[in-house]
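FIELD: query
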Amino acid sequence: MVETYKLNPNLTKTAAVAEWLQQRIDWQIYQPNQRVPSVRKLAKLLNISSFTVVQAYEQLVAINVLTAKPSSGYYVNAVASSVEPNSHTDITAKYPVIDTRWLVQQVFSDIPRDRSPGSGILPSDWVRNDKMEWAIRQVTQQADSFIYDYGDIQGYLPLRQQLAQNLNTLGMQTHADNVITTAGVSQAVTMVAQLLTQVGDTVLVDGPGWYWLSSCLQQQGLNVVAVERDHQGPNIEQMQKIFVAHRPKLYLTNSVLHNPTSYNLHPARAHQVLNLIHEHDAYIFEDDLYAAFVPNGQALRYASLDQFERVFYATGFSKSMASGWRVGMLVCPDEFVDDVLRVKTLSTMNTPEFGERVIHRLWTQGEYRRQLKKVQQHLYSAHQKMRKALPKIGLVYPEHTQAGIFVWVDTGQDTAQLALDAYKEGWLVAPGQLFHPNAHDSTHLRLNVSTTSDEFLAWLGEYLDN
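FIELD: result
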């Protein structure tokens, strides 16, 4: 056969390199135990960076196609599957496996935003703040006064005070002593779970719910059980049965602009949930990461009803200001502050004060408020557009959806297969199975309204018609 060094233009560079090499292994150009081209050689042949080749090789090592030998290179795994030369077997269909790890890898890949309706973040031009560089320069001028010290293990005090003040205006009464800065909401999740649970304990999440959350908790050895979630909140009858059968110690949820549905919490349902929490001596971890997108912040939260008696409340700025800063904050019930600080000390020691100072400066100078108004307007317009576009391809815009980042769409077809087929065409989508801890079949897609293009909707409509 005539060799070609052209990559599939519909895939990311990393995925295209992996596909290119996988094909040549299946065609037996590279035999079991044979060394494949060195990183530098393949990078030169394909006219790409060595870093991209390394990423592709490591992905193939992870799925046992290649074996890495230190100081020697990469070799075809002796047990790697192969087919007869010139077979028309669809190689791409075997790669990748759609799971949480794959989706996270693709989110951090170089797939363009306009090809990523399944991503979880906003376009950079939506969240870009014209004052960001100014704030960084201001903090840099003060760096000598704090950069060489560990700082306060609890986090930058003025930022904690600002959060407490903001929460008080929203009806959640707390103070800076109960606030701990974190490396995003994700660190807050792991710290609270580590504090309140042991391996084998049951925790409760929403179904559907944030895909990373379930996988993270399962990795910690916890039994993750989902309670069905609708536009009012969790199914209270099912939740009651779960408490009796499994006695979960912790319920982790979004109450505002829920991920992936963009539903809010109904007051009656919130009271019922809190009654169960108190009755069964459990706690709530309330992830309020998307609250910034609610105009004036006016939405019901468990923390506003419970006042932090049995609610751990977490929020952050990765979605609304700058994903790279990884600045989050956790509000704890009084009795747990010292324990959470101990967990933080033994895990990360501290969170970087530089980013916390930059966030504080933008917040207190009014830039954050102005930025949020711009994002809220973008989201509202995107939802209005989606409301009109979905019926044109035979889909229903869910009635109770609020103007958050996501819309939870029922396609009427298995979206796991849809996601694989979309990937072959260069699209990154988030199938519904990822949003349930047991990964059961689903006909839903989570669409990011800010990155779902007309071109993708046209592709989706044509796909669903076939």
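FIELD: remark
The CA atoms of residues 96 and 292 lie 35 Å apart.
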